[in-house]
Amino acid sequence: xxxxxxxxxxxxAHHLQDLPPPDEPEIxxxxxxNAGKSSAINALANRTRLAFVSxxxxxxxxxxxxxxxxxxxxxxxxxxxxxxxxxxxxxxxxATLSQYLQTRASLCGLxxxxxARHPLTERDEIMLQWFRPTGRPIHVLLxxxxxxxxxxxxxxxxxxxARLARLGPQHTAQLFSSVERTGIEEAEGIFAGWLARSGVxxxxxxx
Length: 207
Fold this sequence. Notes:
- By secondary structure, the chain is an alpha/beta fold.
- The protein has one domain (8-197): P-loop containing nucleotide triphosphate hydrolases (Rossmann fold), CATH 3.40.50.300.
- Helices cover 32% and strands 20% of the residues.
- The chain contains five helices and seven strands; from the N terminus they run E-E-H-E-E-H-E-H-E-H-E-H.
- The protein has a seven-stranded mixed sheet, with helices on both faces.
- The longest helix has 17 residues, at 87-103.
């Protein structure tokens, strides 16, 4: 069984006060709209619709929480950087995500999803700035790696890793493709380690 397989929906929240109490370790998934965040979550969960996938950016409009079978939670955050989102909603989510990432006590790490063809956008850098002061780990999934040649994918990975190296050893990155299902085991190993360090017996792989 994969780490996220058989995850069950818990709650959705438009405001932080609507979230359940921070009683279990949470892994947050964040990413620019249309970067492949929902597809990555579904690939990791070996499901087709755990997270809603749409060709229209900006469809995830709430913080969606899912409970993992072996303990811990997955938090699917709204996509950011979509220009057509109304200004009032954009300001709301910037404030909400900033506060969530900096103050949510149960967060044990951030999975930051970037399109391998367009990594380290201005908004991605803002997410890094918000989360870095917590001292918790960040792992970047460079999605849609199948759309690049091997050399271009390696170059993108090296560029991102060089940027993350300046932030500290807890900031890592890998290539990922939900289409070719590559990078899943590597990502699971990272995320299981986060949960294990938080006291959750989350080494579900192979069980």
